[in-house]
Each structure stands twice: as structure tokens, then as C-alpha cells.
Design brief:
Blueprint: H1 3-33, H2 54-60, H3 68-99, H4 105-114, H5 120-133, H6 141-144, H7 152-163, H8 168-175, H9 180-191, H10 193-209, H11 212-217, H12 226-235, H13 242-252, H14 254-262, H15 264-276
Helix pairs in contact: 2-13, 3-7, 3-10, 7-15, 8-9, 10-15, 12-13
Membrane topology: Multi-pass membrane protein
Domain ABC transmembrane type-1: 72-263
Family: Belongs to the binding-protein-dependent transport system permease family.
Length: 278
Amino acid sequence: MNGKPRKSNLLVHLVMIAACLVMSYPLLWWIGASFKSAAELGNPGLFPEQWLWRNYSDGWVALPQYTFTRFFENSLLLNATTTLLHVVSASLVAFGFARLTFPLKGMWFSILLLTLMLPGQVTLIPQYTMFHAFDWINTYLPLIVPSAMGGAFFIFLLVQFIRGIPRELDESAKIDGCSWFGIYARIVMPLTVPALITVMIFSFIWGWDDYFGPLIYLNTVDKYTVPLALRMFIDTQSAVAWGQLLAMSLLSVLPPVLIFFLAQKHFVEGIATSGLKG
């Protein structure tokens, strides 16, 4: 009786392992190709015959006048700032929608959700015109300031989470003389740590991978982020050093991957709980 379930489980595991290997092939090829010479890139094998470790050292200093140290610093500073603003502003707005009562609350929340359906291309030209009038072009302000508005997706995620926190905690805090901001800071926010970490991860990864925003608003190389720097490999060389490009692109994915794995437990908890509460 126990033999059939074991054979069935073994078959399922074998199929899952095979599927995992198939899906892992592009990643493994990417890693191997980052050590290949240009002549070996056409080789379908995963790993090179001769490992060119200099692809990483040469790629780090390949761009004229600047190294990737500068571009990584720019991306880290920019995304750390936007992530912090997203967490603070989204949590404040979400707390207001989830706990406070004010006129036309339902209408404003509906308008907030409608903005999720608005393509970014629709607002691109008005935003650029506005930021140009503010003289913010070629600065990080057009990329940072919108983060202070919270972001509709992040606000919705946190509202769903906060609604699941018992209101009895608020009432107890009020009896003890706690203000609404005190309830937000001392009671609600500590209980929403998983959701806040989820917001942090999404914000950092989306900001780190953003190519279009920096391309539109940044004009000088010294302000470029990592995605723009990777594009310069093709812009500035007649013969593209693909090995160096693949090596730098592989390094560029390490920060978001590292952050995800360090906070994976809280990330999963925040997504699962936000989906169940509300």
C-alpha cells in the first residue's frame, strides 16, 4: 500500500528536478559565458575551455573615465533613498486609509486604485514637462520625489495588512492617552514589519532594474546608474566586449538577489498575509 505513494512522490520529484534544470540553463550559461572569450561565446557548452577571470577586472574599468564603483554607488544611493521614502510615505497613507475616518475616503481610495491601471507612458510627457520647469533634469529629484507619494501598489498592500490588525489595540492605546501618530508608530508599524519588508524589497528591485527613468532624466555619465552603464558597453565600442558585458551584468544582479534572500522569510509572510487579510 505504501509502495505506490512513494513511487508517485519520486516521479514528481524527478519531474520537478528536470524542470528546474531546464529553467536553470540560461542562468548557468550566463555565468559560464561571463568567463568566455569572444571566440567561445558561440559554443553551446555551459563552461569555457579557458576561464577568463580578467573579464571581471577589465569590465570594471572598461568605460572611459569611470569605473563601475561610481555606477554602483549611484544606484545604491538612489535606491536606498527611494526605498526609505516608499516605506515611510506608503505606511503613513495606508494607516490613514485603514484606520482613520475622513470625508470621501472610499472615493479617494478608489481613485488610488485606478492609478494602478494608468500606463506610465500616459504620464511621461506631463511629468517631464513639469520636472523640466522645476529645473530638475539631470538630477536625481525626478526619480526620488515621486517616491515620497508612497506608490499606489505599496499603499494597497499595506492597507490590506493593517486592516487585519485588531482594532482593539487602537482602543487600548487611546485609553492610555496615545495619539493617532503614537498608535501608528508604536503599535501598528511594529506589527507590519513583514509587509514593510515586502515593500522594501519590491521598491529596491524595481528601482535597481529601472532603465527608462534614468535614461529620460539623466544626461551626464557621472550620474548614471548601473543599467545605463551596461548600455554604454554597446554605445562606446565598435566591437562589443561581450564577456566583460556579461560579467558586469552578472555583478549587477547580486545586490537585489542578496537582499531578497536575506529577507525572504519576511517577504513571503508579508505577501501571504496581505492576501488573506482585508
